[in-house]
């Protein structure tokens, strides 16, 4: 039995996985073109590179209307503002997600209402959404997590029946498809991030797909200091008509995004094939549970591959597993905490305005979300880099996890020495 790398043995992975982001002379040429054009920033919006990028993004992802933003966090705030969501409203969000999803409602003055997730996908549970709707509910934000997609059939039906705005947080889902429809086009808005570690990156940046031209015009006004937009174009000579700010994408970001879009389809195919192989080999390891494969997900993408490890079988929790996997050369992390356990959402110490104005509405620390909290204690996220390597690399990932399982008694006896706190 091979020794653990952390105890001096040879790492299971014989080669480093490919770096991210990918770049070559194509990115250099695109950036030089913008540099030499003298048109660097986002004003007047949209610049020629930004307009071309949006057209190409819609060709790949689907949809008819899109707005380019400075990043993929403000896109959700812009969507809420464009839809008229604000003070006194509630927005339903899943408890298992990055805090930015819940901060978007807070940024517009609305109350984020947390709901539990499906234990087999870690995405928003439609039954929990239904129970959380009140007379103040105005919108819901469905998050596609890792390589899992929220149940868009159920969520679209709920949104339609209750006349709610449906926003897809698709920061992890560039290229993904639900029933052959591009993710981000099922709801009223689809929010995409171009941050450095996303599947399509420009360093920073965001895209907001809008179902209607009217919403796209409102969103464009909001990100362009309130200047009026009509039928997808700025109204010449028009004075600011809404309280907007500068959230425009730069031409440099758009240029990088255009090159990344050319690479995305082949990268998506490569990642999906590698993930299918990992599904097969991980299923043979005791104590490892694969998340459900929904047949309605007709194109798989891999921001992160998520599986669950059973602490009772292994004898230690997922943080120890992730620390040891990283030591074996496998890039991974332990995922999110349930938002009700995040320091930011504890009102005793929180500086959130709603914690002071509506304390009874935001006592998240008193709530229980058993499936999200379970995910917070069992999830292992394999990084995207794993899925652009070779099939040999995928097999070595499984061998690393098998090695940890085989050494579980030794590890359990000294696990406190192996615990590493989660870092983003």
Structural commentary:
This protein is of the alpha/beta class. Helices cover 37% and strands 15% of the residues. It has 14 helices and 16 strands. The strands form four sheets. It has a seven-stranded mixed β-sheet with strand order 1-9-8-5-4-2-3, with helices on both faces. Strands 12-14-16-15 form a four-stranded antiparallel β-sheet. Helix 4 (99-107) links the parallel strand 2 (90-94) and strand 3. Helix 2 (48-61) packs parallel to helix 8 (251-282) and helix 8 (251-282) packs across helix 13. It is globular, with a radius of gyration of 22 Å.
The largest sheet has its strands arranged as 1-9-8-5-4-2-3
Structural class: alpha/beta
Beta-strand percent range: 15-25%
**Can you give the helix content as a percent range?**
25-40%
- Would you tell me which CATH topology of the largest domain applies? Aspartate Aminotransferase, domain 2
Q: Roughly how many Å apart are the termini?
A: 32 Å
Secondary-structure element string:
HHEHEHEHEHEEEEEHEEHEEEHHEHHEHH
CATH class of the largest domain: Alpha Beta
From the coordinates shown, what is the CATH architecture of the largest domain? 3-Layer(aba) Sandwich
What's the oligomerization state? single chain
Task: Characterize the biggest β-sheet.
Answer: 7 strands, mixed
Total number of domains = 2
In total, the number of strands is: 16
Q: Find the CATH superfamily of the largest domain.
A: Type I PLP-dependent aspartate aminotransferase-like (Major domain)
Mean pLDDT: 92
**What best-fitting shape do the alpha-carbon axes yield?**
globular
Poorly predicted regions? 420-424
Structure annotation, total helices: 14
């Amino acid at each position: 039995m091979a020794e653990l790398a952390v105890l001096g043995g040879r790492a299971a992975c014989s080669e480093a996985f490919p770096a991210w982001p990918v770049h070559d002379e194509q990115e250099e040429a695109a950036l030089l073109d913008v540099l030499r054009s003298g048109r660097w920033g986002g004003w007047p919006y949209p610049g020629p590179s930004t307009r071309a990028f949006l057209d190409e993004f819609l060709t790949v992802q689907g949809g008819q209307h899109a707005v380019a933003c400075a990043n993929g966090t403000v896109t959700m705030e812009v969507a809420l503002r464009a839809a008229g969501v604000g003070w006194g409203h509630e927005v339903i969000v899943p408890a298992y997600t990055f805090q930015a999803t819940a901060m978007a409602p807070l940024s517009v003055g609305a109350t984020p209402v947390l709901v539990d997730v499906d234990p087999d996908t870690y995405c928003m549970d439609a039954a929990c959404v239904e129970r959380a709707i009140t007379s103040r509910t105005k919108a819901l934000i469905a998050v596609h997590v890792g390589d899992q997609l929220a149940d868009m059939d159920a969520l679209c039906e709920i949104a339609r029946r209750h006349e709610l705005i449906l926003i897809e947080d698709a920061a992890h889902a560039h290229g993904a498809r639900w029933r052959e429809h591009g993710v981000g086009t099922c709801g009223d808005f689809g929010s995409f991030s171009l941050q450095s570690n996303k599947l399509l990156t420009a360093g920073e940046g965001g895209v907001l797909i809008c179902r209607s031209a009217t919403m796209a015009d409102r969103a464009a006004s909001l990100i362009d200091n309130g200047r009026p937009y009509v039928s997808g174009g700025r109204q010449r000579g028009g004075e600011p008509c809404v309280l907007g700010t500068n959230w425009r994408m730069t031409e440099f970001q758009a240029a990088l995004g255009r090159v990344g879009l050319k690479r995305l389809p082949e990268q998506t195919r490569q990642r999906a094939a590698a993930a299918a192989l990992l599904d097969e080999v991980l299923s043979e390891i005791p104590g490892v549970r694969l998340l459900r494969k929904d047949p309605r997900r007709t194109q798989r993408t891999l921001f992160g591959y998520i599986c669950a490890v059973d602490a009772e079988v292994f004898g230690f929790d997922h943080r120890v597993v992730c620390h040891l996997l990283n030591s074996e050369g496998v890039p991974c992390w332990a995922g999110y905490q349930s938002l009700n356990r995040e320091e930011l959402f504890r009102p005793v110490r929180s500086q959130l305005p709603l914690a002071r104005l509506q304390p009874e509405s935001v006592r998240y620390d008193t709530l229980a979300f058993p499936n999200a909290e379970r995910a917070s204690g069992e999830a292992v996220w394999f990084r995207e880099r794993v899925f652009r390597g070779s099939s040999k690399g995928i097999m070595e990932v499984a061998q690393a996890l098998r090695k940890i399982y085989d050494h579980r008694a030794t590890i359990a006896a000294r696990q406190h020495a192996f615990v590493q706190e989660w870092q983003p």
